Amino acid sequence: MTLDLLDLSLQRSCLRSRCEFTIQAVNNQGRIIPLTDAESRFAIKTASMSVRDIPDPQRPGEQLGSLVFSESFLESSINVEQEDGGVSTDGCCTILTRGVPAYACWLMDSDVKQSEQARLLATKEDSTCLGSVLTAADAAYLSCSSHLTTHEEGKIVFFSEGLLFVHSQYGSITVSRRHIRSIGLYNPDSSSLASLFVEHQSSLLPHLPFPLHASDQCLVFALQPGSRSHRVFFSKVLSVWKKAESGLNLQMLDQEQLSCTRKNLHSMLQKLHDSQEPPVAKRRGSLRTSCCQLPEQDMFLQHFSLSSMSQEPILQDHLGALFPSAELRGSADGGRDKVSVLILRVRSLLSDGAHSVCVCVCVCVYVNINIIAGLPGSHNEKLCEFLIRSREKSERLAVYAPHPGSSDGFSPSHLQQFLSDFLESRRAAGGRSRLLVLPPGYTDALDVVQAVLSHPDPAARACFAIGAVTACVEPLASFMEHRFAFPKLLEQCSHGVASAVVFTGPPAQRQQALAQHVQQLLRSANPTAAFIQAERGAVIRAEDVALILSDGSFAQPQMLRARYLLYPGWCRARFPTTPGCLGLVQLRLTFSRPLQRPQFVAECQALSSSLSPSPFRGNVYNLWGKARFSDSEQLMEVSYNTIRGSLDLVPEQGPEASSSSCFLVFDGVGLTEDGLKDWLRLCAKQTKKPKKTKNSLSPQEVKHIHAKRRLDPLPAGFLYDGQQYVDVWGRRRSLHPNMEDFIGEYVAEANREVELFNRQLELQEQPDLFD
Description:
By secondary structure, the chain is an alpha+beta fold. It is 28% helix and 28% strand. It has 22 helices and 31 strands.
């Protein structure tokens, strides 16, 4: 096109034959590497174009010389998965040499004289071709949408009928009202730049430097906040330009009235101003200066951060949240905030001669899933019970939890089958449902997320949406030894997955050093999670309940971006989670006979005192289940945490309490079934009773003996006044004078019963606890 304008179209073929274009990648050592190497993906690349031996069109046979142009750039590419399953590539690049001018221009002698004459207009007191002078020269920025322009700083003078901009390289630029079509003023607030968008006639182009020739014929003058030009413009110039007789057609603009190009121009000028703000030490080494010279750098850094992690595809529906720009949002509108499945069921078929009418009912099924994770002993099941009670009047909550007696870990297939059955049970009613998912203790929360998202039935998968992931933490039961955390503690509270962390310990422990250390650790792992205090799962504030049962926390843009950065492939369940560094196992023991409560309590306390340091083999950290004790027929729910040393015995409620079998589940390191059976036998074995002595009697027993024998006959010389015993000398005592004999008789009778019990215990053969 340019050759045609210069009447040089005949030189096109000649120039093409002498043109060479290359792209090279350079590693950190400055060596050229092939573009096919995997290393070149993140290397700086250089695109060069050269035209050798350019012929002189005016002097045949002679040459003007050679021309070389080069740009350095970085590129980024991500794979995008479409709705139909196809994968496309989205690319982005930033030109690192954009800040280096691609041209050099200067004023000729005649231009210098004209520029000096124009500059004198600002000193005249009389009216000029630009009208009367309103302000003195002060700093301002100048730019336009041309790709050749750079953001320039100069001095601006306002007149009643135009303006004058003085630049060291461009000289003086005058813009009078006869060249102006309209002026738009955009001033977001007092601390931001005020941008003047001056749309001019094409007649002004011959008088403008070529870098300011833009297709939209618009110049942007930006006034720095707090500057004299900014203050005087709003105090003097604005009122004059708003008058109809000025002929400048000034309009006040808001952000919605700006085109995307003008928004970007204002943003770049604002970044240029921010990069030059004092103090210099504060902005040194920051990205502010480069951002104003590379306008696409912000978008590129967002794009590059994702592409540098993995080549796993990103869902097309997520582009709008990952790259919040107008262009990408428009292309991602096809995504759905909530996905519903329309299930058509034939209700009736009415026949009327040759006509039949099929009546179908459209049932919309929505299932919102809230995941509540937690290590054993973190009271996540109590939090679930609290949520069910608090929402029983407004919403019915369903729960997925592994069987309390199960020792198996998390099973994705089991959860997926449950979701299918749950969806089938809700199809009749339709509408919205909420499901609370309580995974087993040492489960990575991301495994649960990936199990939901990878449901084998696409129709069922589209019905479920993860609302929020909450992690329950008991600070005193979070470390195996010193500051060595239990496996999966940080994974359950990880950034991008968990939106809330519920601390279920008592309020008194919040100021303890260990509890504060846990909070600092989790804050480092998840800077954006909300911390909630709820003793044993009892949430106090309604806002916290709403956060735990949120419908959209999991899908927030910052959460979505964190997941793509930390767990590539998570959206298609292709991120491999790792097991814990310790071989924590869970074993379940079923038994039929009742346990001895005193022995059971003593053996549980012995577990806490017998915890061994690394490698922790043989340590039991939690046990839970159901058991009966010899002193009661009622089934008890048993829970013991050895780190915290807390034992909970709660009577089982419900009609199944009488018929349920007894079982206990143990979790620990290096546990064996035979070893746990031997431990549990100690809790059921009846031992011989020791004989009593006068010194072994408790004060309660002595009090019981005296109450029983206090009215027995008194020896000579004593009387009883109803409260105390008095001898002939008037001395008083509280106990019966024959109390020593009464105690001796009691001890003898009790020892006869002990001997009888011990003989019977020796004769009878006790059945094994596990028979």
